[in-house]
Design a protein that fits this description.
- The protein is built from 14 helices and 11 strands.
- It is of the alpha/beta class and 347 residues long.
- It has a 6-stranded parallel β-sheet with strand order 2-3-4-5-6-8, with helices on one face.
- Helix 4 links the parallel strand 2 and strand 3.
- The site of 5'-deoxyadenosine (5AD) has 12 residues, from loops.
Protein backbone atom coordinates (compact mmCIF):
# COMPACT_ATOMS: atom_id res chain seq x y z
CA UNK A 1 0.00 0.00 0.00
CA UNK A 2 1.18 3.53 -0.66
CA UNK A 3 1.25 5.97 2.24
CA UNK A 4 -1.74 7.82 0.83
CA UNK A 5 -3.64 4.55 0.80
CA UNK A 6 -2.60 3.94 4.39
CA UNK A 7 -3.96 7.36 5.34
CA UNK A 8 -7.25 6.51 3.61
CA UNK A 9 -7.35 3.20 5.43
CA UNK A 10 -6.78 4.91 8.78
CA UNK A 11 -9.54 7.37 7.96
CA UNK A 12 -12.00 4.65 6.99
CA UNK A 13 -11.18 1.99 9.55
CA UNK A 14 -9.96 4.26 12.38
CA UNK A 15 -7.13 1.86 13.00
CA UNK A 16 -4.05 0.31 11.42
CA UNK A 17 -1.78 -2.67 11.99
CA UNK A 18 1.45 -1.96 13.89
CA UNK A 19 3.57 -2.15 10.76
CA UNK A 20 1.27 0.30 9.01
CA UNK A 21 1.41 2.80 11.86
CA UNK A 22 5.16 2.42 11.72
CA UNK A 23 5.26 3.42 8.07
CA UNK A 24 3.32 6.60 8.75
CA UNK A 25 5.39 7.43 11.82
CA UNK A 26 8.70 6.90 10.09
CA UNK A 27 8.18 9.82 7.80
CA UNK A 28 6.07 11.17 5.00
CA UNK A 29 6.89 13.37 2.05
CA UNK A 30 5.64 16.92 2.19
CA UNK A 31 2.76 16.01 -0.10
CA UNK A 32 1.79 13.02 2.01
CA UNK A 33 1.92 15.15 5.18
CA UNK A 34 -0.39 17.66 3.56
CA UNK A 35 -2.76 14.87 2.57
CA UNK A 36 -2.77 13.52 6.13
CA UNK A 37 -3.51 16.97 7.60
CA UNK A 38 -6.29 17.55 5.06
CA UNK A 39 -7.96 14.28 6.03
CA UNK A 40 -7.59 15.13 9.72
CA UNK A 41 -9.18 18.58 9.14
CA UNK A 42 -12.03 17.02 7.23
CA UNK A 43 -12.72 14.73 10.21
CA UNK A 44 -12.55 17.46 12.84
CA UNK A 45 -14.82 19.68 10.71
CA UNK A 46 -17.35 16.91 10.29
CA UNK A 47 -17.87 16.81 14.07
CA UNK A 48 -16.79 20.23 15.30
CA UNK A 49 -17.10 22.52 12.27
CA UNK A 50 -14.77 25.49 12.43
CA UNK A 51 -14.99 25.91 16.21
CA UNK A 52 -11.94 25.97 18.43
CA UNK A 53 -12.67 25.52 22.13
CA UNK A 54 -10.81 27.65 24.62
CA UNK A 55 -9.93 26.31 28.05
CA UNK A 56 -8.76 28.74 30.71
CA UNK A 57 -5.78 27.15 32.42
CA UNK A 58 -5.12 28.03 36.05
CA UNK A 59 -1.82 26.64 37.31
CA UNK A 60 -2.59 26.88 41.00
CA UNK A 61 0.42 25.22 42.59
CA UNK A 62 3.89 24.22 41.47
CA UNK A 63 4.67 22.21 44.59
CA UNK A 64 4.94 18.56 43.66
CA UNK A 65 5.69 15.47 45.70
CA UNK A 66 6.83 13.61 42.58
CA UNK A 67 10.19 13.57 40.91
CA UNK A 68 9.54 12.82 37.22
CA UNK A 69 12.86 13.08 35.44
CA UNK A 70 11.60 15.33 32.64
CA UNK A 71 9.68 17.87 34.67
CA UNK A 72 10.86 21.29 35.83
CA UNK A 73 8.70 21.28 38.96
CA UNK A 74 9.98 17.90 40.19
CA UNK A 75 10.57 17.93 43.92
CA UNK A 76 14.36 17.71 43.60
CA UNK A 77 14.54 20.96 41.66
CA UNK A 78 15.57 23.30 44.43
CA UNK A 79 15.88 26.15 41.92
CA UNK A 80 12.13 26.20 41.28
CA UNK A 81 10.48 29.14 43.00
CA UNK A 82 7.51 27.49 44.61
CA UNK A 83 4.05 29.04 44.99
CA UNK A 84 0.52 28.04 45.75
CA UNK A 85 -2.62 30.06 45.13
CA UNK A 86 -5.24 30.67 47.80
CA UNK A 87 -8.83 29.76 47.10
CA UNK A 88 -9.70 33.45 46.67
CA UNK A 89 -6.92 33.90 44.09
CA UNK A 90 -8.17 30.91 42.11
CA UNK A 91 -11.71 32.26 42.20
CA UNK A 92 -10.55 35.65 41.04
CA UNK A 93 -8.73 34.07 38.07
CA UNK A 94 -11.93 32.19 37.22
CA UNK A 95 -13.96 35.41 37.48
CA UNK A 96 -11.63 37.18 35.08
CA UNK A 97 -11.73 34.20 32.74
CA UNK A 98 -15.50 34.09 32.77
CA UNK A 99 -15.62 37.79 31.86
CA UNK A 100 -13.29 37.03 28.97
CA UNK A 101 -15.70 34.39 27.70
CA UNK A 102 -14.10 31.20 28.98
CA UNK A 103 -16.60 28.45 29.82
CA UNK A 104 -14.11 25.80 30.87
CA UNK A 105 -11.62 26.18 33.68
CA UNK A 106 -8.75 23.78 34.03
CA UNK A 107 -7.25 23.63 37.50
CA UNK A 108 -3.79 22.20 37.07
CA UNK A 109 -1.06 21.71 39.62
CA UNK A 110 1.72 19.51 40.86
CA UNK A 111 0.77 16.77 43.29
CA UNK A 112 0.58 19.13 46.25
CA UNK A 113 -0.88 17.38 49.28
CA UNK A 114 -1.30 20.64 51.19
CA UNK A 115 -4.61 20.92 49.32
CA UNK A 116 -6.80 18.24 50.89
CA UNK A 117 -9.56 16.54 48.93
CA UNK A 118 -11.96 18.75 50.84
CA UNK A 119 -10.09 21.89 49.72
CA UNK A 120 -10.29 20.77 46.10
CA UNK A 121 -13.99 19.89 46.43
CA UNK A 122 -14.71 23.28 47.99
CA UNK A 123 -12.98 25.11 45.15
CA UNK A 124 -14.74 23.02 42.49
CA UNK A 125 -18.20 23.38 44.00
CA UNK A 126 -17.74 27.11 44.53
CA UNK A 127 -16.83 27.58 40.84
CA UNK A 128 -19.78 25.44 39.75
CA UNK A 129 -22.12 27.40 42.02
CA UNK A 130 -20.96 30.78 40.75
CA UNK A 131 -20.74 29.78 37.06
CA UNK A 132 -23.27 27.09 36.33
CA UNK A 133 -22.71 27.50 32.60
CA UNK A 134 -19.08 26.40 32.88
CA UNK A 135 -17.19 23.13 33.03
CA UNK A 136 -14.42 22.42 35.53
CA UNK A 137 -11.48 20.22 34.60
CA UNK A 138 -9.00 18.93 37.16
CA UNK A 139 -5.41 18.04 36.37
CA UNK A 140 -3.83 17.23 39.72
CA UNK A 141 -2.32 13.82 39.23
CA UNK A 142 -2.70 10.38 40.71
CA UNK A 143 -5.23 9.98 43.53
CA UNK A 144 -7.28 7.17 45.01
CA UNK A 145 -10.57 6.19 43.45
CA UNK A 146 -12.32 7.57 46.53
CA UNK A 147 -10.75 10.99 46.00
CA UNK A 148 -11.76 11.00 42.34
CA UNK A 149 -15.31 10.11 43.39
CA UNK A 150 -15.40 13.04 45.78
CA UNK A 151 -14.18 15.44 43.10
CA UNK A 152 -16.87 14.18 40.74
CA UNK A 153 -19.58 14.59 43.34
CA UNK A 154 -18.34 18.12 44.00
CA UNK A 155 -19.09 18.88 40.35
CA UNK A 156 -15.84 18.38 38.44
CA UNK A 157 -16.67 17.43 34.86
CA UNK A 158 -13.34 16.43 33.36
CA UNK A 159 -9.92 15.15 34.39
CA UNK A 160 -6.61 15.28 32.57
CA UNK A 161 -3.94 12.72 33.39
CA UNK A 162 -1.48 11.91 30.66
CA UNK A 163 -0.38 8.29 30.66
CA UNK A 164 3.07 9.59 29.50
CA UNK A 165 4.03 6.28 27.85
CA UNK A 166 2.20 2.97 27.55
CA UNK A 167 5.41 0.93 27.75
CA UNK A 168 6.52 -0.29 31.21
CA UNK A 169 10.23 -0.12 30.53
CA UNK A 170 9.99 3.32 29.00
CA UNK A 171 7.80 4.47 31.89
CA UNK A 172 10.49 3.42 34.36
CA UNK A 173 13.14 5.43 32.50
CA UNK A 174 11.09 8.62 32.80
CA UNK A 175 9.86 8.25 36.35
CA UNK A 176 11.23 7.53 39.83
CA UNK A 177 10.62 4.03 41.09
CA UNK A 178 7.69 4.94 43.34
CA UNK A 179 5.60 5.69 40.24
CA UNK A 180 4.19 2.91 38.10
CA UNK A 181 2.42 2.63 34.79
CA UNK A 182 0.07 0.21 36.48
CA UNK A 183 -1.20 2.83 38.91
CA UNK A 184 -1.42 5.43 36.14
CA UNK A 185 -3.65 3.10 34.16
CA UNK A 186 -5.71 2.31 37.26
CA UNK A 187 -6.30 6.05 37.72
CA UNK A 188 -7.42 6.48 34.11
CA UNK A 189 -9.76 3.51 34.34
CA UNK A 190 -11.28 4.81 37.59
CA UNK A 191 -11.75 8.27 36.12
CA UNK A 192 -13.59 6.92 33.11
CA UNK A 193 -15.75 4.59 35.17
CA UNK A 194 -16.72 7.38 37.56
CA UNK A 195 -17.96 9.42 34.61
CA UNK A 196 -15.33 12.07 34.03
CA UNK A 197 -14.60 13.16 30.49
CA UNK A 198 -11.05 11.90 30.68
CA UNK A 199 -7.85 12.98 29.00
CA UNK A 200 -4.71 10.88 28.47
CA UNK A 201 -1.64 11.56 26.34
CA UNK A 202 2.12 11.53 26.02
CA UNK A 203 5.12 13.64 25.13
CA UNK A 204 6.50 13.34 21.62
CA UNK A 205 10.24 12.76 21.41
CA UNK A 206 10.62 11.99 25.12
CA UNK A 207 14.05 10.61 26.01
CA UNK A 208 14.41 6.90 25.15
CA UNK A 209 11.15 6.90 23.17
CA UNK A 210 11.14 4.55 20.18
CA UNK A 211 8.73 4.38 17.29
CA UNK A 212 7.47 1.10 18.81
CA UNK A 213 6.68 3.00 22.02
CA UNK A 214 4.60 5.49 20.05
CA UNK A 215 2.70 2.65 18.41
CA UNK A 216 1.97 1.25 21.89
CA UNK A 217 0.74 4.72 22.89
CA UNK A 218 -1.60 4.83 19.91
CA UNK A 219 -2.94 1.37 20.67
CA UNK A 220 -3.41 2.27 24.32
CA UNK A 221 -5.35 5.42 23.33
CA UNK A 222 -7.48 3.43 20.91
CA UNK A 223 -8.38 0.98 23.64
CA UNK A 224 -8.98 3.55 26.40
CA UNK A 225 -10.96 5.83 24.10
CA UNK A 226 -10.41 8.96 26.17
CA UNK A 227 -12.54 12.01 25.45
CA UNK A 228 -9.40 14.15 25.31
CA UNK A 229 -5.81 13.50 24.23
CA UNK A 230 -3.02 15.91 25.19
CA UNK A 231 0.24 15.58 23.32
CA UNK A 232 3.16 17.94 22.94
CA UNK A 233 6.86 17.77 22.21
CA UNK A 234 9.25 16.97 25.06
CA UNK A 235 11.33 20.07 25.82
CA UNK A 236 14.31 19.81 28.19
CA UNK A 237 14.34 21.81 31.40
CA UNK A 238 17.75 23.06 32.55
CA UNK A 239 17.39 21.85 36.15
CA UNK A 240 16.41 18.25 35.41
CA UNK A 241 18.42 15.09 34.66
CA UNK A 242 17.20 15.40 31.05
CA UNK A 243 18.68 18.86 30.56
CA UNK A 244 20.94 17.73 27.72
CA UNK A 245 18.43 15.52 25.92
CA UNK A 246 17.21 16.37 22.44
CA UNK A 247 13.80 18.08 22.26
CA UNK A 248 10.86 16.52 20.42
CA UNK A 249 10.07 17.81 16.94
CA UNK A 250 7.10 19.92 15.90
CA UNK A 251 6.67 17.87 12.71
CA UNK A 252 6.44 14.60 14.63
CA UNK A 253 3.87 16.15 16.96
CA UNK A 254 1.76 17.40 14.05
CA UNK A 255 1.82 14.01 12.37
CA UNK A 256 0.68 12.35 15.60
CA UNK A 257 -2.08 14.91 16.12
CA UNK A 258 -3.44 14.09 12.68
CA UNK A 259 -3.15 10.34 13.23
CA UNK A 260 -4.97 10.63 16.57
CA UNK A 261 -7.72 12.70 14.93
CA UNK A 262 -8.27 9.97 12.32
CA UNK A 263 -8.12 7.20 14.90
CA UNK A 264 -10.47 8.89 17.40
CA UNK A 265 -12.46 11.27 15.17
CA UNK A 266 -14.50 12.90 17.95
CA UNK A 267 -11.65 13.42 20.39
CA UNK A 268 -10.96 16.83 21.93
CA UNK A 269 -7.40 17.54 20.93
CA UNK A 270 -5.45 20.57 22.14
CA UNK A 271 -2.73 22.33 20.22
CA UNK A 272 -0.51 22.62 23.28
CA UNK A 273 1.66 25.37 24.70
CA UNK A 274 4.68 23.06 24.34
CA UNK A 275 3.98 22.86 20.59
CA UNK A 276 3.79 26.67 20.48
CA UNK A 277 7.08 26.83 22.36
CA UNK A 278 9.05 24.55 20.03
CA UNK A 279 7.67 26.37 16.95
CA UNK A 280 6.32 29.95 17.06
CA UNK A 281 3.47 28.87 14.74
CA UNK A 282 3.11 25.46 16.35
CA UNK A 283 -0.37 25.92 17.78
CA UNK A 284 -1.71 27.26 14.48
CA UNK A 285 -0.15 24.35 12.62
CA UNK A 286 -1.66 22.02 15.22
CA UNK A 287 -5.14 23.39 14.49
CA UNK A 288 -4.52 22.77 10.80
CA UNK A 289 -3.48 19.18 11.55
CA UNK A 290 -6.65 18.20 13.40
CA UNK A 291 -6.43 19.85 16.85
CA UNK A 292 -9.54 21.68 18.05
CA UNK A 293 -8.73 22.98 21.53
CA UNK A 294 -6.45 25.74 22.85
CA UNK A 295 -5.65 26.26 26.51
CA UNK A 296 -4.65 29.88 27.15
CA UNK A 297 -3.19 30.68 30.52
CA UNK A 298 -5.34 32.40 33.15
CA UNK A 299 -2.92 32.16 36.05
CA UNK A 300 -2.18 35.48 37.78
CA UNK A 301 0.75 37.27 36.16
CA UNK A 302 2.71 37.08 39.44
CA UNK A 303 3.08 33.29 39.19
CA UNK A 304 3.09 32.83 35.40
CA UNK A 305 6.83 32.58 35.11
CA UNK A 306 7.06 29.98 37.88
CA UNK A 307 5.03 27.12 36.46
CA UNK A 308 7.85 25.96 34.26
CA UNK A 309 7.75 22.31 33.28
CA UNK A 310 10.23 22.99 30.47
CA UNK A 311 12.51 25.81 29.27
CA UNK A 312 11.37 28.65 27.04
CA UNK A 313 7.64 28.41 27.79
CA UNK A 314 5.60 31.00 25.86
CA UNK A 315 2.90 33.30 27.24
CA UNK A 316 4.57 33.79 30.62
CA UNK A 317 4.55 37.58 30.40
CA UNK A 318 1.08 38.25 29.04
CA UNK A 319 -2.04 39.10 31.02
CA UNK A 320 -5.01 36.76 30.61
CA UNK A 321 -6.84 39.31 28.46
CA UNK A 322 -3.82 39.76 26.18
CA UNK A 323 -3.46 36.02 25.67
CA UNK A 324 -7.15 35.71 24.95
CA UNK A 325 -7.02 38.45 22.29
CA UNK A 326 -3.79 37.16 20.80
CA UNK A 327 -5.19 33.66 20.59
CA UNK A 328 -8.37 34.86 18.96
CA UNK A 329 -6.36 36.56 16.22
CA UNK A 330 -4.10 33.56 15.76
CA UNK A 331 -7.07 31.21 15.49
CA UNK A 332 -8.78 33.46 12.94
CA UNK A 333 -5.70 33.39 10.73
CA UNK A 334 -6.10 29.63 10.41
CA UNK A 335 -9.68 30.00 9.14
CA UNK A 336 -11.16 28.63 12.35
CA UNK A 337 -12.91 30.64 15.08
CA UNK A 338 -12.89 30.54 18.86
CA UNK A 339 -16.02 29.23 20.50
CA UNK A 340 -17.43 30.45 23.78
CA UNK A 341 -19.35 27.24 24.51
CA UNK A 342 -18.30 24.64 27.07
CA UNK A 343 -17.16 22.35 24.28
CA UNK A 344 -18.10 19.04 25.84
CA UNK A 345 -17.03 15.74 24.40
CA UNK A 346 -19.34 14.06 21.94
CA UNK A 347 -21.49 11.35 23.47
N1 LIG B 1 8.47 18.91 28.15
C1 LIG B 1 7.23 18.77 27.63
N2 LIG B 1 6.16 18.41 28.35
C2 LIG B 1 6.33 18.19 29.66
N3 LIG B 1 5.48 17.79 30.62
C3 LIG B 1 6.15 17.71 31.79
N4 LIG B 1 7.44 18.03 31.61
C4 LIG B 1 7.59 18.32 30.29
C5 LIG B 1 8.69 18.69 29.47
N5 LIG B 1 9.93 18.83 29.98
C6 LIG B 1 4.10 17.40 30.35
C7 LIG B 1 3.80 16.01 30.90
C8 LIG B 1 2.70 16.28 31.91
C9 LIG B 1 2.10 17.58 31.42
C10 LIG B 1 1.38 18.36 32.46
O1 LIG B 1 3.22 18.30 30.95
O2 LIG B 1 3.34 15.16 29.85
O3 LIG B 1 1.73 15.26 31.97
FE1 LIG C 1 -0.54 34.04 24.89
FE2 LIG C 1 -0.34 34.84 22.26
S1 LIG C 1 -1.52 33.25 23.14
S2 LIG C 1 0.41 35.81 24.09
Amino acid sequence: MTKTELIDKLRNEKNLADEEFKELLQGLSEKEEEYLYAKARERREKYYGKEVYLRGLIEFTNYCRNDCLYCGIRRSNTNAERYRLEKAEILSAVKKGHELGFRTFVLQGGEDLSYTDEDICEIVSEIKKLYDDSAVTLSIGEKTRESYEKFYEAGADRYLLRHETANEEHYSKLHPKELSLENRKRCLKDLKEIGFQTGAGMMVGAPFQTVENLIEDLKFLKELEPEMVGIGPFIPHKDTPFKDEVPGKAGDTLRLLAIIRLMLPKVLLPATTALGTIDPMGREKGLLAGANVIMPNLSPITVRGKYLLYDGKICTGEEAAECRKCMEKRVELTGYRVSVSRGDAYT
